[in-house]
Amino acid sequence: MGGMAYTSIEAEQLTTAEYYGKALHDLGAKHPDVVALTADLAKSTKIAPFVKAFPERLINVGIAEQNMFGIAAGLAKNGFVPYASTFSIFAAARSLDQIHTDICYQNVPVKILASHAGTSFGQAGSTHHAIIDLAVARSLPNMTVMCPADGAEAYKLVLASYEIPGPVYIRINRGFDAVVYGGGPDSVNFVWDKADELKSGRDATFIGIGAGVYQALQAANMLEYDCDIRARVLNMHTLKPIDKEAIIRAIDETGCIVTVEDHVLQGGLGSAVAEVIAEYGKPCKFKMLGHDNSFSTIGLQEDLLTIAGIDANGVAAAAADLLGVKLGGRDNWEDEY
Amino acid sequence: MPANYGPFDKAEWLRLEKKADELRRLTLQTAIWGGSGHIGGAMSCMDILTVLYHRIMKLDPKDPNYEDRDRFVLSKGHAAVGYAPVLVDYGYMPIEELKIFNLTGAKIGMHLDSNKVKGVDFSTGSLGHGISLGVGAALAARFHKKDYMTFVLCGDGEMNEGSNWEGIMSAAQFKLSNLVIMVDNNKCMIDGRVADEMNIEPLDRKFNAFNCNTYRVDGHNMAEINEALEAAIEYRNKGGEKPTAIVFDTFKGEGVDFMKDNYLWHYGSLDDEKASKAFASLDAYYKERCERAEKEGK
C-alpha cells in the first residue's frame, strides 16, 4: 500500500520514489542535458543514484521551493531538461506562481516530480497530504499531468517524460504502492497518452489514477467473484491530455463509469472524466470517488482511503449501487455453524 | 553587436546621454500609443538600461538567441513600457510593433512574453521571480562553460517578495559571480513610498549580509552606473566568487518634472497637454544632463 514505507509486505520491491531515482539516473546517463533539483529532499525523493553518478548535476537549493522552480525554468530556457522534485503539496501549492509563470507560460521542459502525493504521507497529516494538486496541475496551460499506479510504472513513465515536450507534472506516492504491474517495469504496457486497460469487462468501467488503480482492480475482482459483474479497469496514468477515446468506448460499451482517486472530487480525475461524458452527451451511469470537499486526517494511507470510501470495498459498493445489484450474494456462513 | 569596453570618456558619456534621451522620449510615446503605462518605473531605470544595452552587454539583434550572448531578466516586468522601446530601438523589432503596444493582438504589452518578443530572455510580470530565473541562467553558463554574464533588474518595492531572498541566498551559495543583481531603487511603490509602506532599507547592507559583492551608486549618473557594472565584470574576470549586487539610487519618473519622485506616477496616461509638458520637461532635463557630462566627463 502507498505510504507503508516501513511496513511493506514487499521488502524486495523498490518504493515508487526509488523507481523514480533509478529512472532519473538512467535518463542522466543517456542525456547530458538532464539536471536534478531538490529543496532539501534529495533523500526523501530517493534521487541518490543520480546524485552518486552525477554529483555536479545536482542542485540543492535548501528549503526554498519557489526558488527551485524559478532556477529550473532558468536552466530550461538555456538548454537543460531539469527534473525538480519535492513533495506534491509544496510544488502545486507553495510554488504555483513559479510553475504557472516561469514554467508553463514560458512552456519550458521542466519535469516536476511531485512525491508524497494524495494521502500517501498519511501520518504527517493534511499539511503534507496533497489532495488538490491534480486539479491545480490540470488547469495549467501547456502542462502534461501524469501519475503512475505503482513503482514499476513510475519507472516507465519518468523515462517517457523526457520525450514529452514542455512541462510535465509527475505525481507519485510516498513509500510502496500496492503492486499493479507484478512483472516489474518490463511488464508495464505504457503508451504515455493512452489509458492502460488492466482488465476487460462490459458491465461497468472503473477508471483509476495512482493509488486508485489498485483499489479499482481489487473491486473489479470482488464484483466478478461476488455477483458475476464484469468491470473493465482503466489505469488513467496520464490525466492530461486525457485519453478521451478510452472514456468514450467505456460509455458506449459499458454505460457505467466509476472514477477512483486519492484526491478531492473537485477538479481531478473524476472531473476530467465527467467533462468527456458531458460533452459526448450520451447517458452514462457515473460515480466519482475521492475526498469530497474535505481534508483527510492522520493515519495510514490505506485507512484514509477506506475512511473516504476510495478503497476496493467503496468502489465495489458504488458500482453495485449504480448497477442495482446486491453485494455479498456468494457469502456462505453455513460452515461457521 | 559586441560590448563596447572602450574608455568611458566625455564623448562616450555624451553618446549614452543622447541614447537615454531618445529612449525616454520613445517610452513616453509608447505610453501615448498604448493609452497608458508604468511610466514612473520605466523612467527610473532608463539610464541603467541604456548603459547595459549600449555599452555593457554582448547582444546581436540579428541573432537574438545566440548562445554566447549576455542574458537579461527584467524582474520588474511592468517596466516593459520602457524596456520594449529599448529592444525596438536596438533593432530586435520594427517600430510598428510599438505603435500597437498593449492593444488587442499586439505582441508587446504591459509585460513581455519571451516566446513572442525577440530579445526577451524571460517572461516576467509576477514580482520576485527574476533572481531565481537569473540563477538558473548563470548556472547554465557554468555547466556549459560559457562566459556570458546574466543581469537581473529588480524594483525596490519588489524586494518585499521573500522569493528574491531565496534567490540571493542561492546565488551566493553557488558562488555565481557571473550574475549581477541590480535594484532600481526608486523608493516608490503603487500605494506609497517604500519606506512608509514596507521598508527594505538598508538594501546594500542586506545584500552584503547575504554574501554579495555589493555596490551602491547614483542610478542617474552614467559614469557611476558604468563604473559599477564594469566593476562587476572585472570582479568576475579576476576570480571573485560572490554574485554582484548593485543598488542604483533612482527617482520614479526621472526626467519629467511633474512625475519625478511621485508614486502616483507608478502608472498613468498622458493627454495632449500633459504630453507636451512632459516632452518640454525632457528637453530641459537633457540639457542639464549634457552640461553635467561636459563638466564631469574626462
Characteristics:
heterodimer, A: 337 residues, alpha/beta, seven-stranded mixed β-sheet, five-stranded mixed β-sheet, 12 helices, 12 strands, globular, B: alpha/beta, five-stranded parallel β-sheet, two-stranded antiparallel ribbon, 11 helices
What does this entry look like structurally?
The complex is a heterodimer of chains A (337) and B (298). Residues 1-9 of chain A have low confidence and may be disordered. In chain A, helix 4 (88-94) crosses helix 6. Chain A starts with 15 loop residues before the first helix and ends in a 14-residue tail after the last helix. In chain A, the strands form two sheets. A seven-stranded mixed sheet of chain A has the order 2-1-3-4-6-5-10, with helices on both faces. In chain A, strand 11, helix 10 and strand 12 form a beta-alpha-beta unit. Chain A is an alpha/beta fold and 337 residues long. The longest helix of chain A has 17 residues, at 211-227. Helices cover 38% and strands 18% of the residues of chain A. Chain B has a five-stranded parallel sheet, sandwiched between helices. In chain B, strands 4-5 form a two-stranded antiparallel sheet. The longest helix of chain B is centred in the N-terminal third of the chain and has 25 residues, at 10-34. Chain B starts with 9 loop residues before the first helix and ends with a helix. Chain B is globular and about 50 Å long. The mean pLDDT of chain B is 97. Chain B has helices at residues 10-34, 39-44, 46-56, 80-90, 96-99, 130-143, 162-173, 194-197, 203-209, 222-237, 272-296, and strands at residues 71-74, 150-155, 179-185, 188-189, 192-193, 213-218, 244-249. The chains are: A alpha/beta (337), B alpha/beta (298). At the A-B interface, helix 3 and helix 5 of A face helix 6 and helix 7 of B.
